């Protein structure tokens, strides 16, 4: 810097200035700051995003909206509600009464993590949290099945109710598996789809089994 | 104006400040995207740095000398941000790299998995030269998880009560404990007996041997006939054990070593199937259990009529092993 060769600094000049370095290219959302908007706007925006994803799970089409903007609010709400509904149901009211809350919670999250790692190791192009997001949202049909089972169990606990519950849980399990496969299998090389679908099938099967064998105290 | 000069210097080389700005924007992007972006930026930087390394360093030196106090403050701030960025980037990269270590073991096609599943039930005849073992972990891992699911089903239908634990925890602990523990033990024995087998191959072999267990338990947890279970135990369990034993024998030299290895593996494998059936499955004939239900300690829900038979089986097996050794 030849022009600054004769600058001399004395002790009593205060150090001041701006630390921000003006960058050449502005990123697109630099002018849009979400810190100043009212809380209601933030919450409504997040709720709308979650709601849109629920609709995507209900009608699984090959859209990339679910994958692009992943969030884990929906899976958390579904997991917590499923675990609450499954808690404390067993014929025996001794120390261990059916799957406890922590058990269901851990099964769902560890199962999802294992499936994600498996699909990544098999050469998948989907990212870690995107996969967690999809697997979590696709638990929704099974949560609906749990609600229906609880209502049916309020009415009666005979063979008829078991058959109804079996049909409902079976249908929802198939829906869950198909929905998550529609989103996840596309990110795999085409001849390895079966390798990714099997763990998903097993995961939802275990959850469906927990729902089907739930008997209230 | 002086900060403008700073800007020129920074923009030259893919700077740390620009890195930090991009890194703060984490909405909607994932952890590895960060890692990949950093890796790309690091590579770009390295390429550029090779080109203008000399000029850049000299400029920096002059910069410090020129600017005195103000320049040093700015330099330290930039340095700190660069360190933080670099640390985050290397952490992201090491996380990515850890998964990549396992990647070659998952490189299979569905046809291969199916072929290996069927092969695991067919004992090989040629034991004179080493049989090839595929070092693959996808099939064994899926089989262990399937075994966990089948075990859960068996425990649920038999109303097994587990104190100080959970059904799921017990099932996972048992299956993974068997797979990892027995594999490690057999690998250690193989090391002692000079057998040519690696840890991954041992894990793979034992994992595929669990296919027989899965079939047996799946059938016998639903159809409760003792004689059926014993037939399945001998035939299906025996076939998969024979296959594992034959492969191990083909890779070991020396009679004593072969006997030690194969005897241990056969005993552990068959006994595990026996254990899984009896510890986690209440027999339909055990109506007496319900009469004294609260007083029964857990894990002992076996029917009254078979302790004699199972003891006899265990005794003969133990005697057979003792004779061979």
Automatic annotation (TrEMBL), chain A:
Gene Ontology BP annotations: endoplasmic reticulum to Golgi vesicle-mediated transport
UniProt topology in membrane: Multi-pass membrane protein
Keyword flag Flavoprotein: no
Subcellular localization, as worded in the UniProt entry: Golgi apparatus membrane; Membrane
Transmembrane segments annotated in the record for this chain: 70-89, 101-122, 134-156, 162-184, 196-215
Keyword DNA repair set for record: no
Domain of life of the organism encoding this protein: Eukaryota
Keywords, in A-Z order: Membrane, Transmembrane, Transmembrane helix
Family: Belongs to the YIP1 family.
Protein name, UniProt field: Protein YIPF
Provenance organism: Erythrocercus mccallii
TrEMBL record, chain B:
Predominant subcellular localization, coarse grouping: membrane
Coiled coil: none
Subcellular localization(s) per the UniProt record: Cell membrane; Cytoplasm; Golgi apparatus, cis-Golgi network membrane
UniProt biased composition (Acidic residues): 44-62
GO CC terms in record: Golgi apparatus; plasma membrane
Keyword list, A-Z: Cell membrane, Cytoplasm, Differentiation, Glycoprotein, Golgi apparatus, Membrane, Transmembrane, Transmembrane helix
GO BP annotation list: cell differentiation
Region ranges (Disordered): 1-62
Membrane spanning stretches: 137-155, 167-193, 205-224, 230-250, 259-280
Keyword Transmembrane annotated: yes
Lipid bilayer topology: Multi-pass membrane protein
Task of the protein: Involved in the maintenance of the Golgi structure. May play a role in hematopoiesis.
Family of the protein in this entry: Belongs to the YIP1 family.
Protein name: Protein YIPF3
Upper lineage: Eukaryota, Metazoa, Chordata, Craniata, Vertebrata
């Amino acid at each position: 810097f030849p022009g600054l060769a004769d600058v001399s600094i004395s002790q009593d000049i205060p150090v001041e200035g701006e630390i921000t370095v003006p960058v050449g290219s502005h990123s697109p959302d630099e002018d849009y700051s979400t810190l100043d908007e009212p809380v209601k706007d933030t919450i409504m925006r997040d709720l709308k995003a979650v709601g849109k994803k629920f609709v995507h799970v209900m009608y699984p089409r090959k859209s990339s909206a679910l994958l692009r903007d992943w969030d884990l609010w929906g899976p958390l709400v579904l997991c917590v509600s499923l675990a609450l509904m499954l808690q404390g149901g067993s014929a025996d009211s001794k120390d261990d009464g059916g799957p406890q809350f922590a058990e269901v919670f851990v099964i769902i999250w560890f199962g999802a993590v294992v499936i994600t790692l498996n699909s990544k190791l098999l050469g998948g192009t989907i990212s870690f949290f995107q996969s967690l997001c999809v697997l979590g949202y696709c638990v929704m049909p099974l949560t609906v099945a749990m609600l229906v089972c609880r209502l049916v169990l309020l009415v009666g606990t005979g063979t008829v109710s078991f058959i109804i519950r079996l049909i409902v849980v079976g249908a929802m399990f198939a829906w869950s598996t198909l929905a998550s496969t529609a989103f996840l299998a596309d990110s795999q090389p085409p001849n390895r789809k079966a390798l990714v679908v099997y763990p998903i099938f097993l995961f939802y099967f275990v959850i469906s089994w927990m729902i089907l064998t739930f008997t209230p105290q | 104006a002086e900060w403008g000069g700073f800007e020129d210097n920074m923009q030259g080389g893919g700077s740390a400040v620009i890195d930090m700005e991009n890194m703060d924007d984490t909405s909607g992007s994932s952890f590895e995207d960060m890692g990949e972006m950093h890796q790309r930026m690091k590579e770009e930087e390295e390429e550029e740095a090779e080109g203008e390394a000399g000029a850049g360093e000299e400029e920096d030196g002059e910069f410090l000398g020129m600017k005195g106090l103000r320049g040093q403050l700015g330099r330290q701030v930039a340095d700190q941000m660069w360190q933080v960025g670099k640390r985050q980037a290397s952490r992201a990269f090491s996380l990515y790299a850890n998964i990549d270590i396992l990647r070659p073991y998952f490189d299979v096609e569905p046809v291969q998995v199916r072929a290996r599943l069927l092969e695991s039930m067919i004992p090989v005849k040629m034991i004179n030269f080493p049989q090839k073992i595929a070092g693959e972990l996808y099939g064994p891992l899926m089989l262990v998880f399937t075994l966990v699911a089948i075990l859960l089903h068996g425990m649920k239908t038999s109303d097994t009560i587990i104190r100080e634990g959970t059904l799921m925890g017990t099932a996972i602990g048992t299956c993974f404990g068997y797979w990892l523990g027995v594999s490690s033990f057999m690998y250690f024995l193989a090391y002692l007996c000079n057998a040519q087998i690696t840890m991954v191959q041992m894990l793979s072999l034992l994992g595929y041997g669990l296919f027989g267990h899965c079939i047996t338990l799946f059938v016998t947890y639903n159809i409760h006939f003792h004689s059926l279970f014993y037939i399945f135990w001998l035939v299906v369990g025996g076939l998969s054990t024979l296959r594992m034993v034959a492969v191990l024998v083909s890779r070991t030299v020396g009679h004593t070593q072969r006997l030690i290895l194969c005897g241990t593996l056969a005993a552990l494998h068959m006994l595990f199937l026996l254990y899984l059936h009896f510890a986690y499955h209440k027999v339909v004939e055990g109506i007496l259990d319900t009469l004294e239900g609260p007083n029964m300690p857990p894990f002992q829900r076996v029917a009254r009529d078979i302790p004699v038979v199972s003891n006899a089986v265990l005794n003969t097996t133990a005697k057979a092993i003792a004779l061979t050794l």
